[in-house]
Every structure is written in C-alpha cells, then in structure tokens.
C-alpha cells in the first residue's frame, strides 16, 4: 500500500513537471517569436534551449539551494553558482550558434531577431531559473517553519509530561507522609481502646476518599481543600486531646476559587510534626482568606529556638510544587523566631 502511494506520488510529480516545462516551452516560443513570423524556427530554437534551461534550473533547486544555501555553506554556494553560470552561459552561446548555423544557414540577416540578442536569450533562461528557485526557497522555508513548529510542540509536550511525572512523584511523597502520621494516631487509640476510634476511622475514610479521587486532579475547589484540612485537624485533636490549642480562621472564601490539591496541608502537617508543646500546650494558628484574586495563607506554631522546622518532606515538597504550578505567581515566607515558627503564602489565583 505504501509502495503504491509512493509510486502514485512520483507519477503525479512527474506529470506536474512535464506540464510546467510545456508551459515554459510555450513561453519561449511566444517570447522569442514576437518579431519573427517563422514559428517553426522559433519552436526549434526554443526546443534546443529547453534542456539548458531545465538543467540549470534543476541544478539550482536540487543542489545549490538545498545543499549549500540552506545549510549556510555560502562560499561553496557562490563557487558552484559561478560554475553553473559559466557552463549555462557557454551552452546559451551554443544555442545562438545553432540558430545561426542550422536555422539561418550561416546568414546572419536571416536569423530570428530575438536570437541575435544574447542578453535577451540569457534573460529568458535565467528568468525561469530564478522564478523556480524562488518557489523552491519559499517551499523549503515553509517546510522548515513547519518542522520547527512540530519540534517545538514535541519539546513542549515532553516538558509537560516531565512536569506531570514530577508532580505525580511529589504527590506520591505526600500520601505516605500523611498516612504514616494518621495511622500512628489511630494505632495509639487502638491500644487505648478509645471510644473515639470509630469517629477517627470515619474521618480517615473521608480523607482517603479525597486522596483517591480528588488529589489526581490538577486543581480542586478551595472549599473542598479546606474541608479536607478540617478533617485532618479533627484527627489531630483526638490525638493531642487537651494539649492542643488550634485556631482555624477562614475569611471571604469565594466558592469557585480553585487551587492545586494538597497544597496547604503539608504546612499544617509540619506544624503538628515539628511544633513544640510549651506550658503543656501546642499552639497553632491558621488563617486562610481571599482578596483581589489572591489567596492568603498564614500559619504559626510554637517551636524551640533554632528548630529547623523548614526541613523534611512536607515543606521541600510544597516548594517544588509551587515552583512547578505557580512559578512567579506566589510569595512564600518562612520565619522561625521568638519561639514561633511562621509561614506566610500569598498565591495568585490562576484562572
């Protein structure tokens, strides 16, 4: 099938070439016969001139332009173009000599007036060569632009796939980290046979449903993500009992606002994991608000002096995800001073 298509394509190209050179022959006959009534001699001269024109044109479009001009081998292009001009010029002189000897029987006055003019004959040959070469250059440039666009699209697709793979890898890091903390909490309740265990299992079930069916989406509703955070906080409240003092404030949350899933939770996880109980209490304050197409997230928790809370899977992970998803569209500030670990995130809400 492919072979047949290739053969048909070549036949089609051959027919087009034959038709084109027939048009050129007609043009030469009309061009050189404008001042001569003997169209038979003009046609003979044009037929003699055709192989010279065809050879010059094909050398230009199949050798000089693609092999030397397009590849920017300009010195060789100039050298071989000069060779082509010299040889074709010599053959044009032969065609004029043919008109004198064969068509005019060595009678200069009987020659076709057009064929006496070397400049006119040369112009006719090179005019065809230049026009065809110009179309060849245009075609090559269009093909180059098309190939460049295809290459750029492939590069963009590859970059997009790499980013998707990196994001999926980062999400895979979040899941075990989150589940490890939650299962440790449940294990402690199971050992104590606490009455809160069933409620904790229900909360965990909601969280797992979120992880399995929502987190794979590129963006989720901010309200859903906040509800997920609330479920997580409720689990931690059960674990810390009276040693936890946590405040979650949400303000002016727009319903249709969307963010990347699991974007804020690592900060909250980090506050529980690295937070320090002081005076019998772990204090955590969280504020989430929206204003002027920006999301403002702030969290602080009690910590020890020089506590390196910024390390670990959670915050490293979130930094990478922010760079991938919100490059140049976020501001992240992390401070650890006065026994408080503070994180401030300002996020441009992407449409």
TrEMBL record:
Q: Which GO terms describe its molecular function?
A: kinase activity
Q: Which keywords does this Swiss-Prot/TrEMBL entry list?
A: Kinase, Membrane, Transferase, Transmembrane, Transmembrane helix
Q: Where, by residue number, does the polypeptide cross the bilayer?
A: 12-31, 43-62, 74-98, 118-138
Domain Signal transduction histidine kinase internal region, residue spans: 166-243
InterPro entries in the record, alphabetically?
A: Bact_2-comp_sensor_kinase (IPR050640), HATPase_C_sf (IPR036890), Sig_transdc_His_kin_internal (IPR010559)
Pfam families to which the protein is assigned, alphabetical: His_kinase
Task: Tell me what this protein is called.
Answer: Histidine kinase
The organism encoding this protein is Thalassobellus suaedae
């Amino acid at each position: 099938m492919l072979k047949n298509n290739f053969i048909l394509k070549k036949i089609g190209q051959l027919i087009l070439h034959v038709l084109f050179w027939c048009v050129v022959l007609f043009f030469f006959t009309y061009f050189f016969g404008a001042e001569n009534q003997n169209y038979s001699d003009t046609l003979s001269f044009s037929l003699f001139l055709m192989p010279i024109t065809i050879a010059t044109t094909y050398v230009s479009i199949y050798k000089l332009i693609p092999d030397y001009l397009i590849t920017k081998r300009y010195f060789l292009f100039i050298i071989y173009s000069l060779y082509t001009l010299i040889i074709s010029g010599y053959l044009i002189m032969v065609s004029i000599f043919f008109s004198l000897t064969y068509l005019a029987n060595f009678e200069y006055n009987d020659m076709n007036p057009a064929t006496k003019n070397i400049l006119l004959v040369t112009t006719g040959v090179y005019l065809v060569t230049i026009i065809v070469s110009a179309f060849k250059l245009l075609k090559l440039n269009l093909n180059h632009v098309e190939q460049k666009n295809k290459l750029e699209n492939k590069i963009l697709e590859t970059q997009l796939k790499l980013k998707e793979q990196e994001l999926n890898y980062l999400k895979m890091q979040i899941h075990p980290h989150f589940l490890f903390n939650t299962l440790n909490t449940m294990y402690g309740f199971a050992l104590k046979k606490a009455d809160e265990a069933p409620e904790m299992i229900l909360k965990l079930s909601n969280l797992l449903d979120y992880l399995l069916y929502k987190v794979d989406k590129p963006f989720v509703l901010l309200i859903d993500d906040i509800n997920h955070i609330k479920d997580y906080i409720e689990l931690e409240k059960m674990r810390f009992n009276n040693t936890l003092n946590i405040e979650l404030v949400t303000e002016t949350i727009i319903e249709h606002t969307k963010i990347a899933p699991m974007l804020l939770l690592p900060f909250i996880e980090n506050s529980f994991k690295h937070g320090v109980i002081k005076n019998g209490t772990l204090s955590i304050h969280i504020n989430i608000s929206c204003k002027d197409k920006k999301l403002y997230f702030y969290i602080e928790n009690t910590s020890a002096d020089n506590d390196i809370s910024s390390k670990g899977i959670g915050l490293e992970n979130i930094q990478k995800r922010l760079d991938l998803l919100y490059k140049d569209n976020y501001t992240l500030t992390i401070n650890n001073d006065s026994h408080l670990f503070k994180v401030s995130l300002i996020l441009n809400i992407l449409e």
